[in-house]
Write a structure and sequence with these properties.
Layout lengths: L8 E6 L13 E8 L5 E9 L17 E4 L2 H4 L6 E5 L5 H4 L1 H7 L7 E3 L1 H13 L10 E3 L5 E4 L2 E7 L8 E6 L4 E4 L17 H7 L5 E4 L13 H15 L3 E5 L5 H13 L3 E5 L2 H13 L3 H5 L5 E2 L4 H5 L5 E5 L15 E5 L6 H9 L3 E4 L14 H10 L4 E4 L4 H13 L3 E2 L9 E4 L4 E5 L4 E8 L2 E8 L8 H5 L2 H19 L1
Parallel strand pairs: 3-5, 5-6, 6-7, 11-12, 12-19, 13-16, 13-17, 14-15, 14-16, 17-18, 19-20
Antiparallel strand pairs: 1-2, 1-21, 2-3, 4-23, 8-9, 9-10, 10-11, 21-22, 23-24
Helix pairs in contact: 6-7, 13-15
The chain binds zinc ion.
C-alpha cells in the first residue's frame, strides 16, 4: 500500500459503492490530510460514510459464506488514517448491515453517527446478532441541521427524501474542498411525516460545494423518481373508483412509507384500517409506532384502526375497511367475495400467491404492472440529477451506487445537460484526490470484498477479488449494458430534437 497521505489534500475512496453486480454494500472513505507551511504533517482525519453488506455475496463463490462486507480493515487498525467516525446515511441493510459482522469478527468500531430511526433498526440488529452491550460502538444521534466537528472536518447533516425515516446526506467540508454526499435520495418534496431533501440549504451552500457523491443509481431512467404524493393520489383514485367496501392493499414489509401512504389514502376516504401481516410486517409496524407515528391519533374519531385479525373486531368495522399488510391469501376472516372486495397490489412477484387467491375468488384487482406509481421509489432518476445539477451548477458529480458502465455511457448525455462528471469513472477501491481545481486518481487498487464465514458464533473474513461488472446476471433483469447504452442514446436524441 503506498502512502498517499504523504501529500496534503482531501482523499475519497469508494469501498463498496461502485462496480458492483448488485446494488449494495456501500461504504466510503473520506480522509483529510493537512501539512503545515514547513511541510510537516499537521493533522489527518478519516471518516467512513456507511458500512453496508453486499447482498450478492453468493456470486463471490466462497462456500459457507453468509454475507460479504466492504474491506475497511485498514481504517480500523491503529495507523495515521484510522477512522474517527462512521456516519450512517440511513437504516437500510446495504448501508449499515456490515456493522454487526465486523463486531462479530472481533473489530472495535469508532463512534457511529446516525438518526433516531437508524439507531432503532441498528439496536434490532445488535439483538439479532447477539452483540453484547460492551462491544457496541458509541452512538451519537444526529438530525437535520446538525454541524459535526470531527478532526479537521466540519460536516453538516442535511435531509434526504428516501423510503425510511431519518435519511440524511452530509456536506463534508475539509481544509481544501467541500463534498456533498447525498445518501440514497430523490428530489421529491412530498414526503409524509419525514423531512424532504434539504433543497433550500443546498441552494444556500451551492457556491462552496465542489463535488457531489450522488449515491443513487436511477440515472438510466428518464423523468423523476415516483413522488409520494402521486402514489397517494393514485391509491385514492383506485379505491374510490372500485366502489367496493373491502379493499386489500398489501405492502412490502420494509417500506414504512407505503404503510403510511396507504393509511392516509384510507383515512382520506373514511375507510377503517386493518393492519394485518406476517411477523416481519408487524415488527416494522412497531418500529414506526415506536418512532412516534400514532395511527390511532391521526384517525381521531373519523375511522377505526385495528392491529389484529380478530373476527369480532373486524365485524365492528361494518364491512368498510382497507387491509394494509403482507398476506398471501384472502383470509376467511374477511369473508371476501367478488361483490364487495377489490385488491391493489403494490409490489412485484412478492404477492403472486395473493393474485392467485383473488383469481380463485373472482375478486378484481390491479397491480404495480398496470400502475408502476403504486410501488413508490426511493432513488432519484435522470430528472432528479438534472435538477440537483441546476442547484449545484459548479459541482462535479461522482455518481455511485451503480455499475461503472452506467456512468461511462452517461457521459455524452451528461455533457449535453451540462452535468460535470468526474473522470475517469471511479472503480471500487480506487483512491481519488479531490481539490477545488481538479480530481486526480492517485491510486488504482483491486476491488476487494470480504466474505463472512461463521463458526460457533464468531465471524472470519475472507478476501475475495471482485471481477469487473458483467452487466449480466442480476443486472440483466434491471439494466443490461446494451439496454443502458440505447436508453441514453434515446434520451439524448429526444433532448437534441427539443432544442433544434
Ligand atoms: Zn436505501
Amino acid at each position: 500500500m503506498s502512502e498517499y497521505w504523504q501529500k496534503d489534500g482531501f482523499y475519497w475512496q469508494p469501498l463498496g459503492g461502485n462496480n458492483i453486480d448488485q446494488i449494495s454494500g456501500h461504504s466510503y472513505q473520506y480522509t483529510d490530510v493537512i501539512y503545515d507551511v514547513s511541510n510537516h504533517l499537521k493533522q489527518v482525519t478519516s471518516i467512513i460514510v456507511d458500512l453496508g453488506k453486499f447482498d450478492n455475496y453468493q456470486a463471490l463463490g466462497v462456500a459457507g459464506a453468509s454475507a460479504a462486507v466492504p474491506d475497511i480493515r485498514f481504517l480500523l487498525s491503529s495507523s495515521l488514517i484510522s477512522a474517527q467516525a462512521i456516519l450512517l446515511t440511513h437504516s437500510h441493510p446495504d448501508h449499515m448491515n456490515g456493522i454487526p459482522h465486523y463486531l462479530k469478527a472481533g473489530y472495535s468500531l469508532p463512534p457511529i453517527y446516525g438518526g433516531k430511526y437508524t439507531k432503532m433498526i441498528l439496536d434490532d440488529l445488535y439483538i439479532q446478532f447477539n452483540i453484547a452491550a460492551e462491544i457496541r460502538p458509541d452512538f451519537i444521534e444526529i438530525k437535520e441541521g446538525d454541524i459535526l466537528n470531527i478532526g479537521s472536518l466540519e460536516i453538516e447533516v442535511v435531509s434526504a427524501s428516501h423510503t425510511c425515516f431519518d435519511s440524511f446526506g452530509f456536506i463534508i467540508k475539509s481544509h481544501s474542498t467541500t463534498v456533498y454526499h447525498t445518501g440514497d435520495m430523490k428530489m421529491d418534496l412530498s414526503t409524509y411525516f419525514r423531512k424532504p431533501t434539504s433543497v433550500k440549504r443546498l441552494k444556500e451552500r451551492s457556491a462552496e460545494i465542489d463535488y457531489c457523491v450522488a449515491d443513487f443509481y436511477g440515472v438510466h431512467e428518464d423523468g423523476y423518481a415516483v413522488k409520494e404524493v402521486d402514489t397517494f393520489k393514485q391509491l385514492v383514485k383506485l379505491i374510490k373508483h372500485s366502489k367496493k367496501n373491502k379493499i386489500f392493499l398489501p405492502v412490502y414489509p420494509t417500506h414504512p412509507e407505503m404503510y403510511i401512504i396507504a393509511f392516509l389514502a384510507a383515512l382520506k376516504l373514511k375507510k377503517n384500517v386493518i393492519f394485518f401481516g406476517n411477523p416481519d410486517f408487524y415488527s416494522y409496524l412497531k418500529r414506526i409506532i415506536d418512532y412516534g407515528i400514532n395511527f390511532s391519533d391521526f384517525a381521531k374519531e373519523r375511522i377505526k384502526v385495528i392491529y389484529t385479525h380478530n373476527r369480532d373486531e373486524i365485524k365492528s368495522l361494518n364491512n368498510n375497511y382497507v387491509v394494509i399488510g403482507t398476506y398471501n391469501h384472502v383470509s376467511l376472516n374477511f369473508d371476501a367475495s367478488s361483490k364487495d372486495s377489490f385488491g391493489i397490489i403494490t409490489a412485484k412477484s412478492f404477492f403472486n400467491p395473493l393474485k392467485g387467491q383473488f383469481n380463485a375468488h373472482n375478486i378484481k384487482f390491479v397491480s404495480v404492472d398496470d400502475y408502476p406509481v403504486l410501488q413508490g421509489f426511493g432513488h432519484g432518476f435522470l430528472k432528479d440529477i438534472e435538477e440537483l445539477s441546476q442547484i449545484l451548477p459548479q459541482t462535479t458529480f461522482i455518481p455511485t451506487h451503480c455499475p461503472v458502465y452506467i456512468i461511462d455511457y452517461f457521459r455524452e448525455l451528461a455533457n449535453f445537460l451540462n452535468i460535470k462528471l468526474i473522470a475517469p469513472t471511479p472503480n471500487n477501491n480506487e483512491v481519488f484526490l479531490l481539490s477545488k481545481e481538479q480530481s486526480i486518481l492517485v491510486e488504482k487498487r483491486i476491488s476487494l470484498w470480504l466474505s463472512v464465514l461463521y463458526q460457533s458464533g464468531v465471524a472470519s473474513l475472507v478476501e475475495v477479488e471482485q471481477k469487473p461488472t458483467s452487466g449480466e446476471g442480476f443486472l440483466k433483469r434491471t439494466i443490461s449494458k446494451r439496454r443502458c447504452m440505447s436508453k441514453f442514446q434515446a434520451y439524448l436524441y429526444q433532448r437534441k430534437k427539443k432544442f433544434s
